[in-house]
Amino acid sequence: MPGPTPHRTPLRRVSQGSLLVLSRSGAHPDAPHGLGFIEPALAELADEADALLANVEGLHALGDSLQMFNESFASWLYVMNMNALTVDWPQAPTDASFIIAKRRAEEDARAALEAMHSQTNPEPSNLERTTATTDHGDETAYAETTIPDASAIQSSKSATTVKVKKKGKPKMTPKEKKERAAAIDKTISCLPLEFRGSDPGLRRNMEQVIEGLMDRAGQGVKLHDLIKPPDLNQARVNKCLIALVNRKVVVKDNSSGSVLYHWQGVPV
């Protein structure tokens, strides 16, 4: 007795024989002879190829649109970044500036009121008369005493004061000068190319700004303290400070109401 038929995956009719057998099978009695039966299949294949080509062209157009959008968006981001780096107004008033201005206005009003009160209550005259009674009778003797004027006292004080000359910067030893020059070169090497030598005048201005910040490393420095006309004007100082702040070599602080720049050095 023969065994059971093994399980087989059902196949399409085309896979069970040649196209010639399929064309001459009994299921298709009106099928064309020879290669004529391939014409409908090729027509359908051509339609599908046209649809595939249209889809590929659509994908190509989509890629071009994405590329154009990326370029436009990248340009917009670059413009915003440049605007943030170049448009900086350190002298713009803050909330603390308005508070300080209000406090100064109150102090000026108080000083004006005190001056008005002092004018309504004049001081006694410089010439005062004192009376003294003699032992021999009721006669009264008058003595005149002169009180020096406040302006005279002030002039005498100013004449006795000694002028104190301001001390300049202490002279640096050759070793200290060499170390400072090395620190300045290290700082400039971290800055953009325009500060590293492409513009000699800008590099010289950057060195002057760094030296001014180093001289006051323990305290804040205002922007106007670094201006040295005519070469180092406000625009050049502002440009140098923006580059130093971006590299975190200098820290910008406006918590006190005025903008101060603190020297930090090149970050490790």
From TrEMBL:
- List UniProt keywords, sorted A-Z: Centromere, Chromosome, Chromosome partition, Cytoplasm, Cytoskeleton, Kinetochore, Microtubule, Nucleus
The record's section on InterPro entries has:
DASH_Dam1
Q: What is its main location?
A: nucleus
Top-rank taxon of the source lineage equals: Eukaryota
| Positions with biased composition (Basic residues) | 163-172
Q: Name one GO cellular component term.
A: mitotic spindle pole body
Q: Where is this region: Disordered?
A: 153-180
Write the protein's name.
Answer: DASH complex subunit DAM1
Which lineage ranks, top first, belong to the organism behind this chain? Eukaryota, Fungi, Dikarya, Basidiomycota, Agaricomycotina
